[in-house]
Amino acid sequence: MKIQSFVNNPRKSQLNDRPVCQVAIIGAGPYGLAAAAHLRAAKIETRVFGETMGFWSRQMPEGMIVRSIWDACHISDPHRALTMDGYTAAERVQIPQPVALSDFINYGRWFQQQVVPDVDARHVAGIELAPHGFRLVLDDGESFHAQRVVIATGIAKFSRRPPIFDGFPAELVSHTSEHRKLNHFAGKSVAVIGGGQSALETAALLHELGAEVEVIARQPRINWLDQKVTWLKSEANPFRRIFYPPSDVGPPGLNWIVATPGLFRQLPRRTQEWVAYRSIRPAGSGWLVPRLRTVPIRTSLTVTTATGAGTDKVALQIDDGSARRVDHVMLATGYRVDVTRHSFFAPDLLKALHVADGYPELRAGLESSVPGLHFVGAPAARSFGPVNRFVSGTGYAASSLARRIVASAGRNEP
Ligand SMILES: Cc1cc2nc3c(=O)[nH]c(=O)nc-3n(C[C@H](O)[C@H](O)[C@H](O)COP(=O)(O)OP(=O)(O)OC[C@H]3O[C@@H](n4cnc5c(N)ncnc54)[C@H](O)[C@@H]3O)c2cc1C
Q1: CATH, domain range 163-223+282-331
Q2: For the whole model, what pTM was predicted?
């Protein structure tokens, strides 16, 4: 099933001989793909760069289960034809729920084939301001001009490592995002630092692979989600959508605010912060509970120092006075957005970019203070709310981006 038939037709710039395109999307994950689907359907000439579903297929552990419910896994397209249901029907496949990582990656690759079969897997190494837009340089040195650029590069660059673990080699201390396979930890002792989904699921996978695992979390208790599906949330309840929007982010009451990024944006900053905090605090899926029954999970603990113990062990000092000596420390300490860490931005562009707490300040169409430069995905979360950290935010982001770009094309703006 193909829903679009636009083939890129790079024109030649008047200024020089390099091809120019209307929109360059950097990133081929759910957000980049959704943006491409909406823009190409609106006949906006669009090029997409990056490895399709690269973050999901390289930086999440094999065997992982996607935390989002089915309805929150659809990557947005303007005709709502390329949902998970569209995929299973078109490809005649069955996907058990909760959705396995491998199934979600296959869905994303299928979506890409329908929308942007011509994804360019090269990485963008440089973006600089140019007359009437931007000049982009690819990792092989080729350069071209784009009138607009959409940054859809996800969170991979923003992994958070507590400074006490600086200087350790990757064999002793690593972040969860550095692993696709975990089987080499069989028989080893591993301290997993963190108390969210990534920590708990990594701990379950390590335990099942034969590692000796302990979870060390700062928070006073683990928040478990949806241990039992109540009648209110069950499919049998015809009024379920009143209480639970399909975006599936945030507790009842706040979840509809989060599902409406245009509304979130209007709230006072302090209310936005509170809504975001209440909606995305660390939590584990209820289906992990039985898998972790015999794994020690220690809460209200902070690692105060980490030192090498011989060449192949790490010694941890904990703030309750106890100590550990482990083969490996797995940092499931999440991500912290800071777009200034992107090495591809030229200094003059970075100077013109208004950033608060690492997030770009965005207006309608998810456009930054640099006209024509847009951000989708997690970097949009400060302006448009936490749904932008999840696949279920692709609908709002891609449609509002397309509306802005179509409107500006109509006015002959760059
Ligand atoms: C362990 C884990 C589990 C998660 N589970 C869920 C879940 O259940 N549900 C959910 O909704 N979200 C989940 N998330 C969040 C998830 O990361 C985002 O929802 C989703 O990946 C956002 O999509 P994206 O397109 O913004 O980024 P990504 O999927 O990270 O895609 C980024 C793209 O950018 C490309 N790229 C990066 N730099 C460049 C460059 N310089 N040039 C060209 N291309 C580049 C990459 O190759 C990739 O194609 C999870 C995250 C983690 C870490």
Answers
A1: 3.50.50.60
A2: 0.94
